[in-house]
Amino acid sequence: MFVARSTKANAGDMATMRVVAQFLGADRALGWGRASPDPCDGSWLGITCDASGYVVYIIANNSGLTGHLPRETCNLSMLAAIYLNNNSLSGDVPPLGPNLMEISLSYNRFMSISPEFFKDMEIVFSLSAVNANIIGPIPEFVGDHFKYLGTLKLQGNSLFGHIPTSFASTRIRSVQLQDQRGLDKLSGPIFMLNATNIVYLDLHGNQFTWPIPNLASNIEMEYIDLSKNALTGDVPQSLMQLHHLRVLNLSDNSLCGQLPKFIKNMTVKIEGNHKIGHPC
Questions:
Q1: Where are the domains of the chain?
Q2: Out of 3.30.930.10, 3.20.20.80, 3.80.10.10, 1.10.8.60, which CATH number does the structure's domain 1-133 have?
Q3: How many CA atoms lie within 13 A of 46 on its CB side?
Q4: GO cellular-component terms in the record (predicted)?
Q5: Residues of the chain with pLDDT under 70
Q6: Rounded CA gap, 267 and 16, in Å?
Q7: DSSP letter string over 167-207?
Q8: Which CATH fold would you assign to the domain 177-279?
Q9: Measured between alpha carbons, how far is residue 201 from residues 10, 211, 237, 275 in Å?
């Protein structure tokens, strides 16, 4: 994608960005539109356009934004990345556009992510909304839809329910869903472990149950934290086949049986499983 530092905005994007500026509160906090109505002429801090005058990047981290994301954002047809971390944005997260590849909305005060948010964004490879106050389940179709999703960071929200089984067929490599805050947290079996491309997995501080599945096909795994859940059964011998694994935290579950003989340079935490060493 060719990015121009200063050009004339497409008329449609210019009109949409006026709405976005107003609803985000960026007209007040960042002065968007104050010097010029054109978001592509270089006067709108954090806005980047391509050579045809379409907005491609919105970057407004740590900007004192106090509004919410308007549904009109999805009219920015060439928007590829949006970063709005560390603000005080609230309300629901609406659909944001069909060409988005990177979304980062962490440390805000959102209420939920609309199911429609996911449906038109088939090429997203990074989604981050850490401590964003999001409440609700992960929609069942997410894994089927986000075929290119590589990084998912939704820790510190109030998500609950099962992880969709469709995640098992994705290319996802890094998953961070730890420390959900509600009384009901993420639970059920960990289908995510059937996704064979995962390198980094952190699901600690939830309510996952069932035994840990066979991990022999997860040959690239480097980091696993499943601590502070309600996992049962033995620690699978298949963990010994993960030659890249460097950190394994299974503490504070209800695991039992004998431990595998782990490689020497692996950090293993298993405390808080009072039946370890005893038959299951």
A1: 1-133, 177-279
A2: 3.80.10.10
A3: 20
A4: membrane
A5: 1-6, 119-120
A6: 51
A7: GGGS---EEE-----SSS-EEE--GGGG-TT-SEEE--SSE
A8: 3.80.10
A9: 42, 16, 19, 24
Taking Cα atoms as reference points, which of 32, 1, 7 lies closest to residue 17? Answer: 32
Q: Parallel, antiparallel, or unpaired for β 55-59 and 47-50?
A: antiparallel
Burial level of 250, CB count in 10 A (0-12/13-18/19+)?
buried
Mean per-residue pLDDT of the chain:
91
* Helix H or strand E encompassing 13: helix 11-24
At 272, list the tokens: 């808080």
Query: What residues does 249 pair with on adjacent strands?
Result: 225, 269
pLDDT in tens, 138-186: 887 777 777 788 999 999 999 999 988 888 778 889 999 999 998 999 9
**φ/ψ of residue 252, rounded to 5:** 60, 55
| Predicted pLDDT at 6 | 62
* Radius of gyration of the chain from its Cα atoms, rounded to whole angstroms: 22
- Tokens at 240, concatenated: 């010994």
Fold: same for 1-133 and 177-279: yes
The predicted structure's pLDDT at residue 10: 93
